[in-house]
């Protein structure tokens, strides 16, 4: 056998496990599209991916101060402070546009 090739045994256990896994993924994407907790999400100033989970590209702000106003904050899972994020309509965590819309300026 070469590399990390391995044989997947396709039995009922495999099919059930895989079905569950893909169903969970589907549920996740449905939440991303439907945005059922929109108000809570906007209250936390998070984009859909950062709020519902699944954002693999979360950057940490190790300095814990806002890059726009230099205010310190205690949550190192965000890049900028909440008030700057609100003002600029950005996700506090990954700093995409909070509504995932195109824009011409910051
Ligand atoms: Zn700020
Ligand atoms: Zn985000």
How far apart, in Å, are the first and last alpha carbons?
52 Å
* Radius of gyration of CA atoms, rounded to a whole number: 19 Å
Number of helical segments with 4 or more residues: 4
Q: How many domain regions?
A: 1
Largest sheet: none
Which spans of ≥5 residues are poorly predicted at pLDDT below 50?
Answer: none
Approximate helicity band: 25-40%
SSE sequence, one letter per element: HHHH
The ligands bound in this entry are: zinc ion
- What is the beta-strand fraction? under 5%
Structural class: mainly alpha
What spatial form do the alpha-carbon principal axes imply? elongated
Number of strands: 0
Mean pLDDT: 88
Q: Brief overview, please?
A:
The chain has 106 residues and is mainly α. The chain has one domain (12-88).
Can you put this structure into words, describing what you see?
With 106 residues, the chain is an all-alpha fold. It has one domain (12-88). The protein is built from four helices and no strands. The longest helix has 23 residues, at 12-34. The chain is elongated, with a radius of gyration of 19 Å. Bound molecules: zinc ion (2 copies). One zinc ion (ZN) binds next to helix 3.
């Amino acid at each position: 056998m070469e590399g990390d090739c391995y044989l997947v045994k396709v039995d009922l256990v495999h099919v059930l496990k895989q079905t569950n896994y893909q169903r969970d993924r589907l549920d996740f994407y449905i939440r991303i599209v439907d945005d059922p907790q929109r108000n809570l999400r906007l209250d936390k100033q998070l984009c859909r991916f950062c709020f519902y989970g699944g954002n693999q590209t979360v950057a940490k702000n190790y300095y814990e101060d806002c890059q726009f106003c230099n205010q310190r904050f205690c949550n190192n899972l965000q890049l900028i402070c909440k008030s700057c994020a609100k003002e600029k309509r950005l996700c506090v965590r990954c700093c995409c546009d909070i509504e995932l819309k195109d824009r011409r300026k910051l």
